[in-house]
Amino acid sequence: MTHFDSDYLEGCHAKILETLTSTNMRQTVGYGRDEFSEEARAKVLAACGNPDAEVEFMVGGTQTNATILKAILRPYESVVSVESGHINGHEAGAVEGTGHKILTLPSHNGKFDLDELETFISEWRANTNDYEHVTWPAVVYISQPTELGTLYSLDEFRRLRKICDDHQLSLFADGARLGYALASPANDVSLPELAKLCDAFYIGGTKVGALFGEAAVVRRGLIPHFRTVIKQDGALLAKGRLLGVQFSVLFTDNLYQRIAENAIACAEKMRKGLTAKGYELLYDAPTNQVFVALDAKGYDLFSRVTTFTDWGHLANGRRVIRLTTSWATAPEAIDTLIADLG
Amino acid sequence: MTHFDSDYLEGCHAKILETLTSTNMRQTVGYGRDEFSEEARAKVLAACGNPDAEVEFMVGGTQTNATILKAILRPYESVVSVESGHINGHEAGAVEGTGHKILTLPSHNGKFDLDELETFISEWRANTNDYEHVTWPAVVYISQPTELGTLYSLDEFRRLRKICDDHQLSLFADGARLGYALASPANDVSLPELAKLCDAFYIGGTKVGALFGEAAVVRRGLIPHFRTVIKQDGALLAKGRLLGVQFSVLFTDNLYQRIAENAIACAEKMRKGLTAKGYELLYDAPTNQVFVALDAKGYDLFSRVTTFTDWGHLANGRRVIRLTTSWATAPEAIDTLIADLG
Amino acid sequence: MTHFDSDYLEGCHAKILETLTSTNMRQTVGYGRDEFSEEARAKVLAACGNPDAEVEFMVGGTQTNATILKAILRPYESVVSVESGHINGHEAGAVEGTGHKILTLPSHNGKFDLDELETFISEWRANTNDYEHVTWPAVVYISQPTELGTLYSLDEFRRLRKICDDHQLSLFADGARLGYALASPANDVSLPELAKLCDAFYIGGTKVGALFGEAAVVRRGLIPHFRTVIKQDGALLAKGRLLGVQFSVLFTDNLYQRIAENAIACAEKMRKGLTAKGYELLYDAPTNQVFVALDAKGYDLFSRVTTFTDWGHLANGRRVIRLTTSWATAPEAIDTLIADLG
Amino acid sequence: MTHFDSDYLEGCHAKILETLTSTNMRQTVGYGRDEFSEEARAKVLAACGNPDAEVEFMVGGTQTNATILKAILRPYESVVSVESGHINGHEAGAVEGTGHKILTLPSHNGKFDLDELETFISEWRANTNDYEHVTWPAVVYISQPTELGTLYSLDEFRRLRKICDDHQLSLFADGARLGYALASPANDVSLPELAKLCDAFYIGGTKVGALFGEAAVVRRGLIPHFRTVIKQDGALLAKGRLLGVQFSVLFTDNLYQRIAENAIACAEKMRKGLTAKGYELLYDAPTNQVFVALDAKGYDLFSRVTTFTDWGHLANGRRVIRLTTSWATAPEAIDTLIADLG
Predict the structure, then answer these.
(1) What ipTM was reported for this prediction?
(2) Chain-wide mean pLDDT for chain A?
(3) Residues of C whose CB is below 8 A from A129
(4) Which of B57, D33, D145, D330 has its CA 20 to 30 A from that of B149?
């Protein structure tokens, strides 16, 4: 049985393990100042088309989100997210653990309604009465793709940028699954465009072919002493070479996006197969996550043929499940799944 | 040229990479609930001779120290360390970053003078005048071996335990280099004894044969919701299997201690070679770190033949350097080093 | 012109200033161990009918909320509040500043819908899948009266207690305006009943006759080293006698509730006067806050005759204002206000 | 019996209570935007000769220290203090509670040795090896007078300023007892000079004639959104008028310094009386604290005739006690004390 619970069920792309093995006994300095890390930084910057940003590698997504936000925010500042944002719902209070409030707006298929966001920030800024009784929103947090697998368009990114510029906020994009955005035919935001429009973002490796690792890309000057904050948060890997090797491999010959394309193709194949069988898909998500609304009988059937993530209930009593493909999914596994559903 | 800066200059023991490779495409659940992690837990507990402790794996030492201390300490509580303790000097304020004060006592070759510690705690507890104006020491932090490569003896461990029992503190041992303690002929504290005498400790993998990883062993009941704190601190690895595989390999056929013995043998060989050449060694450290006092000429010579860590100055103007061996050091590299010193 | 912005516009009840003056040059020990504080503690406990609780005095409401929650909560724990809760909206992120997430539920006239609360907690406890990815709700925060001047009934308090008992949470009541609850004819929760049903609460002085000060009443054993946490939070007043004198005066001959009755009578008089003039009141709030829905013309009129607090907009474009009476309001000022409204 | 434990044993200067009483029923806005606070700000700035600084009032010293340091410091930054500094020893870990490390240097009669400080900072800044493993010292914390009643001279203040300028640190002076420095004949640092040389400092009211209150004076631009941080820390008094009235009274006709002169005169009288009787005084402290070294018999005698603060033991077994005078001390009480010592 193939599992579709998430996109971290396997290890990593074979090329990474090969390179880790072939370089294993080379001695390098620690903490990300080694030659592999420097090479990976250069490749990431080249892919971003932004030679002046700062690149630091961390191990996981929650760690990267919390460290970057802690590093940007002053004590009186807060971050704005949709309610369904990963930092708000699935990081065990990591952001609040660093002392900062998350202000939430409703999720519209995982995204902000940008008019709502604009109004929210404008009214907040205008409310000078409450000035000292409320936090100061200083960062807008989004993810690309979102928790629901949806995408912000380039137009929406530009609008986000404008809102942030108009009200002096930083724009931070969680890219834990960024590869699956870049590889989606529905996506019109290239990596260089995203890099230009965000103050900070990260390129997720853990879910896109690496054993682990996220490449944080930060506008130079935004975060002074970034490496010290990373160390303080326990996020500075001693053998930084491991992150360097992985991102160096992923950003050679566009491997990062190429392996993500497999996930998109598999997800699309799954969507077609499920739709053909009459299943209702939710959220219009064009990346590697597939959300299915199921009645009790359907839920039972899926439970027999694979594993997945429970994603809550609909008002009408039906349940939602999430199936996830990845760089590692075999297309045949989709055929089998569809066939097993009878 | 072989480098002796630290014990994290290479990757990992070959057996680990082999197992990571052979298990790479197996699908497992995430966050350390996979079968590799469960197997590793069982092996670690067996090695500790304490089937009732809780074992969780984290990625690095600073992370493990800060997460465990944050999890144990209440807001009004502090941790007692020698001034040279790693948490006090080399973790970028990680413990204070979680809100807790470190109370320091002088370092005696990296260790507490246990009479000083006993007096310190007794007087603190007796000083009810200042009750609400000072923090409450609640954890004694040590490392085995210490920052200076020295060891607490079993008698000293028992005395530490008694001090903690008498004054209701927890005893926490940082074992980032624990393998090099266990492998030292000078050591008389076995892993089961250490496990029995400490409330919490960790077995360091990063410096002893793993790519990364530390196995935290905690008295059951000491830390409620430990895994949630780990997640909140960004320390819960998505592909927990990577930690499981590594510790499972290290704790099969006593590999962890066996590879550490190489480091000890190399360090001993280095100490003999240097002593024979008239160099002065410091701290009487019987583990994998070698501290040498050098005049300007000696420092210059060492700088030409290898790399090392600067360890400060002596009162007489001489400098101290640290050379470190590891599981990966080739004995021949020691011969070369000694020969190169002329 | 009499102002109705809030209930902290004047100084304090005359009796307090008299006693501060008559005791001014007596020497006492500091930090709340003086005889005035001990006397006040005894009087507060007597009024609570609970001789075994712990009473500590702090200076203000935000301070008291944040200190108590920080003291109760472990790092992985969160507090549940309605969205309109004071800790969520008007304390500049103080609770998050101590590292803890606030989980919010919709406000129903300032209160929880207790079925919603029960469901929320039950489902959270049942969701063991997400166990380590989410915080652990450990405290239910309410205020009595609420931000909207409404009251929990005794039946509702008992239900809150049961929900907390069933799911092992603490119940914490913010009583910044508690006097105005106790003095309301609509209230059926006596101070001893509230004291019995809550794990922690505080009796607000700042808004009910004192210059400043809140009396925190905490179940003995709930918060170890409470005074140290108070000191750490900068909330331990050097001249604790000032808090002792004030609460001793307020809890002599039931002064606290008696002066609050004036606020209730004035608010009731205001509500009658406004209703008679055809104004629409909101929230059915039976305490010292009066919420009025106004069209542009009405808003303009109110702005000419008094000052108040803006309380947002209604969907239909009308505005909401809040008028507040207090222990210090002269009944004649209400007559004048109503008359001035023409 | 007159007590000499500390300088907060009495209430406040009579003029303050009179003004609080005469203004008691005036309605003002809250949170320090009232006319009394604005008047007090203007008077404090005039006394400082620095019309461009920012003045905010807080309630107590620990609160003011922690709030200012939290507001200035970024996560990776630390504060440098002498070991005997109040923030290091008597604030229950408040600074660490906000996430920041205190780096300590030896105390020389309560003060830095400025050569030691210069060397410490220079070497720290030069040690780029450890860059990301250690915090970044960003504030120098001193108090004037110090914990031991000693004073920094104007020359020393200028040197402190230069050290801070050379290495880009802020200079912060804790002035909990500043009045007693200003009133000492041994002092050569006027308030305008101190205001010019520090980035931030506060003028202590609690120990110098007020019921409570500290006036923080901060270089404009140093702390953005200062009032929000104050609110977040529970340090923004609702009835800010109370602080306004007190500092307005204290800074009218130089009352603040004039009442402090009484404490100095009484302390000087005490020092002369004790010296005449052969007692050994310590620390050469020219302000309102008197430190006496006592053998067992002397300690016993003092214990019978007054109360004081225990200040530890000397190497030779003798004890140190501290006697404190204040604005409220009657000169006759000193005569009585000396007479009672026989």
Answers:
(1) 0.97
(2) 97
(3) 310
(4) B57
